[in-house]
Automatic annotation (TrEMBL):
Organism annotation: Novosphingobium clariflavum
Gene Ontology MF term list: transferase activity
Pfam families: NTP_transf_3 (PF12804)
Signal peptide: none
Record-given protein name: NTP transferase domain-containing protein
Keywords, comma-separated and alphabetical: Magnesium, Transferase
Domain MobA-like NTP transferase: residue ranges: 5-160
Length: 190
């Protein structure tokens, strides 16, 4: 199975109050943590769907990291643009740029359990999280999404979705406000 990782990073950070994806967490931009998690996935490439001007850093080595710049901040537009850029892939992992603590081994576990299902997601205490692994059979339905809507609605109450029950709440942890980022900061051990 040929898989691609998408890192969605085109939003405007309206609740954060400034450019949250460039805000530092453990000494590097928040977005870099998501890119690193995407590169740890069993993928042939990583596509970062980002707004113009966002610093994506340099990522030598494999898998390659490519930028796809879009002007729309709508989640549906980011997802559709990323899927179009991943043409030919059997599936895509969807990582969110504001989810810095996604466990690096989770994507491989999802790839191992997806089987013939349309999606595989981690689930913590009954709540689905990220990354999401979406099968190419789902792509035509994603093309119909609008506004700030992700694939969640398409996956609810579907029997063809499999879950990896996890003990790590990081699959749900996103940064919306400056306080969220401050709570994640590593303690100073010096």
């Amino acid at each position: 199975m040929t898989l691609t990782a998408l890192v969605l990073a085109a939003g405007h950070s309206s609740r954060f109050g400034s450019d949250k994806l460039s805000a530092l967490l453990d000494g590097e931009p928040l977005l870099f943590h998501a890119i690193r998690a995407a590169r740890a996935a069993p993928v042939s490439r990583v596509i970062v769907v980002a707004r113009p001007g966002l610093d994506l850093g340099e990522w030598p080595g494999e898998p390659p990291v490519a930028a796809l710049r879009i002007d729309s901040a709508a989640l549906s537009q980011s997802l559709k643009a990323g899927i179009a850029a991943a043409a030919g892939a059997d599936g895509v992992f969807v990582f969110l740029g504001d989810m810095p603590r996604v466990p690096h081994g989770e994507a491989a576990r999802l790839a191992a359990i997806i089987g013939n299902n349309i999606a595989a997601l981690p689930r913590y205490r009954g709540s689905p999280g990220h990354p999401a692994l979406l099968c190419a059979r789902l792509f035509p339905q994603i093309a119909g999404l609008e506004g700030d809507e992700g694939a969640g609605r398409l996956l609810r109450s579907r029997e063809e979705v499999v879950f990896d029950e996890v003990d790590d709440p990081a699959v749900l942890l996103d940064v919306d406000r400056a306080e969220d980022l401050q709570a994640l900061q590593a303690p100073d051990l010096s």
